[in-house]
Design a protein that fits this description.
Radius of gyration: 22 Å
Helix content: 25-40%
Low-confidence stretches: none
Bound molecules: adenine
CATH class of the largest domain: Alpha Beta
Distance between the termini: 42 Å
């Protein structure tokens, strides 16, 4: 997968060199390129923003600068016509649709993601409109109901959540099957390791029993209880077919 991130703070994306995403890049599974938006400015001061039309606080990012950057990144050099179908433009913003594991799964199918990180009061609204009109898939995404100073941290979140779903990136792909926000729709059960007793706290005995069916049932019950307490909205969203006879008793 190819990922282009455009920002006025390229250094903010340095963590993409590390850990799992860094390894995926080294292994050639992920081609991430971070670009400085100011490289597409044409004035001496490398200006990327201006005051909001209609007045108000802060600054708005200029559509012409973003247009120059995105024209180049969305349409690979020499490609005729509109940008290719495998690409999606992502614009992190607190007013976007909420980014979830389902979004990450959908994006992991794409060949190419372009992330446009806004700062200040955001990017002129015509930028998203223009690329939609040109037939580009554009999604404005929020990573949660809080306000960050810009889209960079959200871009890190999206790239990490998507990268770990790409084939070959996780050492043990089974890690994907039982985790929170996975297929069960439940939060993950609590996990334990050695020592069995630590500071007077003893790990649940069932986990030492070697009885796979009992362990599976215990984990399922724990996941249900946890979800009911912490995220009742997730439990409420599960259809009756997602719960078995034992589940209903928990
Ligand atoms: N930019 C500022 N706040 C944001 C948020 N919550 N999600 C995505 N991008 C943002």
């Amino acid at each position: 997968m190819r990922v282009d991130v455009v920002t006025i703070f390229p250094d903010y994306l340095a963590p993409l060199e590390l850990s799992l995403v860094g390894k995926a890049r080294e292994a050639g599974l992920l081609d991430v390129r971070v670009h400085d938006l100011r490289d597409w400015t044409s004035d001496r001061h490398r200006t990327v923003d201006d005051t909001p039309l209609g007045g108000g606080a802060g600054m708005v990012m200029r559509p012409d600068v973003w247009g120059a950057a995105l024209d180049e990144l969305l349409a690979p050099a020499g490609a005729p016509g509109p940008a290719d179908g495998g690409v999606e433009l992502l614009v992190p913003t607190p007013s976007g649709e909420v980014f979830t594991q389902r979004t990450a799964e959908r994006l992991a199918e794409r060949a190419h993601l372009v992330l446009a990180c806004g700062r200040y009061e955001g990017i002129d609204a015509r930028v998203a409109e223009h690329y939609r009109d040109r037939g580009v898939a554009v999604t404005e995404i929020s990573i949660g109901d809080y306000v960050l100073n810009g889209g960079e941290v959200a871009a890190l979140v999206v790239v990490e959540a998507v990268a770990r779903l790409l084939p070959g990136v996780l050492g043990n792909p089974e890690s994907l099957t039982e985790e929170s926000h996975g297929a069960s729709g439940l939060l993950e059960y609590p996990v334990y390791t050695r020592p069995v007793e630590w500071r007077g706290l003893v790990a649940p005995e069932v986990l030492l029993s070697g009885h796979h069916a009992r362990i599976a049932r215990w984990r399922r019950d724990q996941a249900l209880e946890r979800t009911a307490v912490r995220r009742p909205d997730l439990l409420a969203a599960l259809g009756p077919e997602s719960l078995d006879r034992h589940d209903r008793a928990v």
